[in-house]
Amino acid sequence: MGYGNFDNLNLQKEAPIILGIESSCDETAAAVICGRKILSDEIASSASTQALFGGVVPEIASRAHTEAVAAVVERAVKNAGISFAEIDAVAVTYGAGLLGALLVGVSFAKAFAYALNKPLIAVNHIRGHIAAAYLDEPSLKPPFVTLLASGGHTAILHASSEADFRILGATLDDAAGEAFDKVARVLGLKYPGGPNIQRLAKEGKTVIPMPKMLKGGGEYNFSYSGLKTAVINYCHTMEQKGLAYNKADVAASFQCAAIDVLVEKTVAAAKETKVNTVTVGGGVAANDYLRESLSAACAAEGLKLVLPEKRYCTDNAAMIASEGLVQYRLGNFADLSLNAKASIPLSATWKTGGEK
Ligand code: KG4
Ligand code: ZN
Description:
With about 350 residues, this protein is of the alpha/beta class. The chain has 2 domains: about 15-130 and about 315-355, 2-Layer Sandwich (Nucleotidyltransferase, domain 5); about 140-310, ATPase, nucleotide binding domain (Nucleotidyltransferase, domain 5), CATH 3.30.420.40. It is built from 10 helices and 12 strands. Strands 3-2-1-4-5 form a 5-stranded mixed beta sheet, sandwiched between helices. The structure holds 5'-O-[(R)-(carboxyoxy)(hydroxy)phosphoryl]adenosine and zinc ion (ZN).
């Protein structure tokens, strides 16, 4: 279902203006970029409502997106100081995420692009997390190694170009962020768990023994389910025996075990693939301990580290616009048959005619 003719667009235009829209989880976000410069970046979150339920309730997320999306987009365009007519393309997350939540952003973006007669770009949320690094460091050029650690994915990737990457290793079970959230729950901390574990860990010591994480040369996979179960069992056993335990020490010991393996393997992957640069993406990359250890490890190995600001590690729309720019350069536009997808392959893209 085409609606405009975009065959003669100048795809190599110096600094296209891209509107990004993100609604895959509990953040309704819209941002405008001009080339790799962020002009505006707006977020409305339903996290405080979700916290009352101990996690994201999909129905509540969808309703909150529906209420917020028009105003958030309007604010992003207004704060960018541009008119609707100046937008070169509308990029929207089509997957992966909560289906009902994604549908709000996708439907809005389709209507918006159609009404303005602008190209529509379907963005893979994970590719968005990787593309956040281009906004932090506009001169960034592949090849580089990326550590991606979010609530749904944990992987180490090698990017050979802006659009092409190879998975060097990934989690065999839970994602790192998921482990943070589950451990937080057991410790009685509110959703989202990651930032709360980090806060508590600062008051604790790494004195509680944790199971060994998957290690070993040339092996970049991870497993978080054993670590998560060990922490849960420790807390439950202590409670059953009526013994007191220090929650801050549990948080610190867990955080250290969960993060050290990411840092170690990312640096090893960068060395093995002989790249000079490491980037990070995803909510867990907002963790202070990860940021400090990875900075130190990269400095020790002479690797340049691109560490996007924390707000561009967690879900945001500027990263969706940034990946939108990559797809714009390739002319990969979607039509009005675009649909949201709850689950897509880590490296999926939407090329003209469907998902690849
Ligand atoms: O990338 P993201 O915002 O959403 C997904 O695409 O999943 O990542 C969310 C995840 C959650 O599991 C959250 O607990 C974790 O990132 N997270 C953190 C921190 N901030 C967010 N984990 C550890 N430390 C943090 N400071
Ligand atoms: Zn995300």
